[in-house]
Specification:
With about 260 residues, the chain is of the alpha/beta class. About 40% of the residues lie in helices and about 20% in strands.
């Protein structure tokens, strides 16, 4: 349960506050009929949080998502050079190094460009980034034009809260990818299913338009839903693969 453990570790003040509020709602002697209403709302909230944690366990600990063996489905060829971008917590570069031996990896850190909210700040303080990590900004990746065969951005783009920063980042990724290179963008989408599952936490996810915007920065092929290519208007500089974990796929046992 490493995924759930990290979520609890980085967001413990929110869970603690939720537990305190539920406890107060159940113990305080509210007058009727408000008591029944308050206690019912508290129980519903507690159930919602519990379901969200369960779904996080299914997504991050049970599914193949963080195994990353599925990457060979979206990459037609093994990249000789690739980049990994993070915004405070690098969770994938070690696994990619195992899956892509002999490939040259470049790690970019965009932490300074994030809002540095509590969870991201705690993640950075608790998990030391790799020594090879290079600081970067959304509008300036320290890399030459067309030098990467693939760029991986996993659960990081949404931490750039300003849409202009995300657009600048997608432009820089397109610049650094060789012709035919791939951007592998992994994000939850702010849709009805995720809002129902994760509640207020889903507000940080990218909307569908925010994910598709990555493919509109330069002419490209935009991948949608799960590991699928949808041809763009014409051949472009890169192909973008959106891997959006769908709850229904997880619940059906994607391993």
């Amino acid at each position: 349960m490493n995924g759930v453990r990290q979520i609890l570790r980085f967001n413990w003040p929110k869970f603690l506050l939720s537990g305190v509020l539920v406890g107060l709602a159940l113990m305080l002697p509210f007058p009727q009929p408000w008591r029944l209403f308050v206690q019912g709302a508290a129980l519903i909230g507690a159930a919602w949080v519990t379901v969200g944690i369960l779904l996080c366990w299914l997504v991050y600990d049970v599914s193949r998502l963080y195994d990353w063996s599925w990457v060979f489905v979206v990459l037609p060829n093994k990249p000789s050079r690739y980049a990994v971008l993070n915004t405070g917590l690098d969770e994938i570069s070690g696994r990619l190094a195992e899956l892509l031996p002999g490939s040259e990896a470049t790690l970019f850190d965009l932490y300074d460009s994030t809002g540095r909210d509590g969870s991201i700040r705690r993640a950075r303080n608790l998990v030391t980034p790799p020594d090879a990590m290079m600081r970067a900004t959304p509008d300036q990746l320290p890399a030459q034009d067309g030098c990467f065969d693939a760029v991986f951005v996993a659960f990081a783009a949404h931490e750039l809260r300003n849409p202009s920063d995300r657009r600048a980042l997608y432009g820089e990724i397109s610049r650094t990818l060789r012709p035919g290179g791939r951007l592998v963008l992994v994000e939850h989408c702010r849709d009805a299913a995720n809002i129902l599952a994760y509640g207020a936490g889903s507000l940080a996810f990218l909307p569908e338009s925010g994910m598709a915007a990555a493919g509109r920065r330069r002419p490209s092929h935009v991948g949608g839903r799960r590991r699928q290519d949808t041809p763009g208007s014409r051949d472009g500089i890169c192909k973008m693969m959106i891997f959006r974990p769908r709850l229904v796929d997880i619940l059906l046992g994607v391993r």
